[in-house]
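Inverse folding, one chain.
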């Protein structure tokens, strides 16, 4: 789940065979039909993948069936770690990704995926994107790599799954953990030995004791993946990822050839799915916690005072994670100012 960057590719040969434009055949020229391929993050049949199915269906509905997106599960076209370069190079037109996977190479992405110990509410993070200029800044970050950031899908916390009790922040020190993006830097600051394993390796790594604790996905997705079988302790709130943004990202050359109404359909469908998935997770979290308990898991909850006391250490890790990159600093400054206005930060 890592990748590469830079130059904008030309729209011709690099996209050949990847996207069907109106001029490709006389029939399509008459209908204006476009067909894309998209690789998502998720395993087939899982709840988040079902919401991606709803996304591509909605795009088709909004365009009268003229813009269709063939959906693939994570790793079906290329390994997850290669998706960034594959979309950039035109192998397929679109991906659902988590920006944090590329944060080591593009520092701005650390802050467009999650803010550990940051925004506690999903609506606050979504408001930063849509009301505070975050969307434009995310697009600037992706634009340098020849990609088009369409929109985020924003939902709530992701838990920490552990093989032993974790009842306070200090218990994280000395543990081996799987975290990605900005969470890697912040958990490292709290003494965790971090391995940025692909999502698909989390189950086996916990099972074999390669790691002690792990972030993976939301509570329901993790239960569906069987994490309750290999880690009997669930730690909430997920301070490493209190709110989450995954991203719809397209090849810029392919995107720029779309008619305006197709671009609008992508944006509208993306925001609809963001709200519907978030609401679904809100309902499911309470239900799935009972399923974890039925599997013999113990639920641990961090004291709010403990979180508050440790937030300054996280803020220092945020600052370091900008790597003095101008755009990353601009994004973080914007977020910090908004969090202060909201009372999240003093």
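Residues assigned per position:
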């Amino acid at each position: 789940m890592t990748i590469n960057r830079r130059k904008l590719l030309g729209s011709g040969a690099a996209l050949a065979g990847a996207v069907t434009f109106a001029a490709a055949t006389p029939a399509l020229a008459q209908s204006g039909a476009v067909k894309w391929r998209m690789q998502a993050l998720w395993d087939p049949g899982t709840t988040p993948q079902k919401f991606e199915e709803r996304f591509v269906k909605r795009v088709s509905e909004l365009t009268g069936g003229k813009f269709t997106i063939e959906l693939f599960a994570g790793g079906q076209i290329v390994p997850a770690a290669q998706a960034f370069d594959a979309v950039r190079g035109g192998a397929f037109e679109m991906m659902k990704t988590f920006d944090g996977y590329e944060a080591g190479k593009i520092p701005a992405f650390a802050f467009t995926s999650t803010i550990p110990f940051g925004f506690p509410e999903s609506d606050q993070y979504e408001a930063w994107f849509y009301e505070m200029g975050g969307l434009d800044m995310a697009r600037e970050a992706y634009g340098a790599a020849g990609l088009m950031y369409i929109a985020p899908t924003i939902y709530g916390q992701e838990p920490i799954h552990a093989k032993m009790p974790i009842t306070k922040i200090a218990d994280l020190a000395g543990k081996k953990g799987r975290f990605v993006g900005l969470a890697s830097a912040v958990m490292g600051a709290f003494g965790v030995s971090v391995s940025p394993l692909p999502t698909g390796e989390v189950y086996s790594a916990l099972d074999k004791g390669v790691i002690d604790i792990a972030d993976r996905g939301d509570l329901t997705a993790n239960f569906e993946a069987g994490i309750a079988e290999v880690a009997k302790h669930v730690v909430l709130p997920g301070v490493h990822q209190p709110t989450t943004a995954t991203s719809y990202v397209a090849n810029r050359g392919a995107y720029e050839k779309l008619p305006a109404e197709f671009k609008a359909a992508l944006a509208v469908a993306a925001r609809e799915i963001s709200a519907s998935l978030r609401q679904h997770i809100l309902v499911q979290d309470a239900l799935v916690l009972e399923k974890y308990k039925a599997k013999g898991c113990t639920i641990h909850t961090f004291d709010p005072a403990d979180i508050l006391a440790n937030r300054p250490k996280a803020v220092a890790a945020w600052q370091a994670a900008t790597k003095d990159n101008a755009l990353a600093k601009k994004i973080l400054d914007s977020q910090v100012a908004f969090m202060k206005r909201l009372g999240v930060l003093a």
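Residues 260-294 form the longest helix (35 residues). The first strand starts at residue 34 and ends at 39.
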